Amino acid sequence: MKQELRKAVMAVIVNEEGKVLIGSSPRDGGYKFPQGGLEQGEHFLDGIIRELKEELGVTITTRDIDQSYNETVGYVYPDEEKYIFKRQELNIVKIIYNPSIKLIPQDDEFDELIWIFPSELPKYNTDFRAKAYEKALKICGLL
């Protein structure tokens, strides 16, 4: 039986050109922002620091965080066996990218990372996450 809700956090990482980082996900198909589920009792800022280390091998501190938002975005997972939750709710954290940091995918979360202008996101298959991602970019003031 599927669990109802997964609390999670996503990073909107912005570089000096105003582009955002997305990655191709071999696990889920399509493109997505760096994101992940929160552990029991974990604050979403601690969660994004942990997730970026786990997924991209990068260590950030709260100084790298430009803005965090109390408003959340969410989506319903497709009714497939690989998803153990029915839906996901994400806090958004906007991070200013430090070009001296190397982003290196650490597991099967991403097989390709790309920088795109926020307005280009609809050109990429974000599947069931599309509306939530568009809303997140608007919350961040990027659309």
UniProtKB/TrEMBL annotation:
Keyword Hydrolase attached: yes
Give residue ranges for domain Nudix hydrolase.
Answer: 4-138
Q: Does the keyword Hydrolase apply?
A: yes
> Which GO MF terms are attached to this record?
hydrolase activity
What keywords does the record list, in alphabetical order?
Answer: Hydrolase
> Which SUPFAM superfamilies does the UniProt record give?
Nudix
Write one Pfam family the protein is assigned to: NUDIX
Report the protein name in the record: NUDIX hydrolase
What organism does the record attribute this protein to?
Aureibaculum marinum
